[in-house]
Amino acid sequence: MTEHPGETAPAGRSAPPGPRSAAAPGGGRDRREPGEGLGELPPNRTQAILEATKQVATLLKAGGHPFALAGSVAVYAHGGPDNLQHDADFCILPEDAEAVAATLRKAGLEVYTPPEDWLLKAKCLGEDIDLIFELAHQPVTRELLERADQLPVESVHMPVLAVTDLVASLLNAFTEHHCDFGAVLPIARALREKVDWARVRRECGSDPMPAAFLYLLERLQVIEPEEDSHDGP
Length: 233
What we know:
- This protein has 8 helices and 9 strands.
- The protein has helices at residues 46-62, 71-77, 97-106, 142-146, 163-172, 181-191, 197-204, 208-219, and strands spanning 67-70, 87-92, 110-112, 119-124, 127-132, 134-135, 138-139, 149-153, 156-160.
- The strands form 3 sheets. The protein has a 5-stranded mixed beta sheet.
- Strand 4 and strand 5 (127-132) form a beta hairpin.
- The chain is globular.
């Protein structure tokens, strides 16, 4: 922000006193300027991630590789939140990983193997791309990819994980060490009418963290409570 210099006080008069600075811990004065020390907001990378997504999807389609868009960009394609800040995720078959890597490298993309043994990583237009062949601790299968919906990501149509598979994968990824309900809650709210929640419960509800999240959704009235089959006349 551009600062405008103030007027010089007339001779013989004192300039009006400025605002007193707040006392810092320990009795000293906090001499920071307003706003100093506050973290800057992260840049909005949504458009850059979408452009990288379209580029990679086009290469995968041209190479004849079965795949489905996953993660936050898949949520966006289904009508969910559009504040993309991390990367683009693609599900691929485990047996197709080397061929996918070769296709992307041939197009000039950097592809490398991270320490994790369930994905490859790539760079496209400066954005991170995850090529996942194990989703929520389960291998990606042809059946999963065949259930994908053909949806547009802006101007490019591509297979996108079916919305129930997508939400189930997010819940199945919860563990005691990674359990960010706050990130998944707005997704569940946005997509709730498209999700087969009975199937999500069958596939996820026996584990404690997904079960806790489903209970939270019920208490927040995002989804209907599960009918108790033992209730009756």
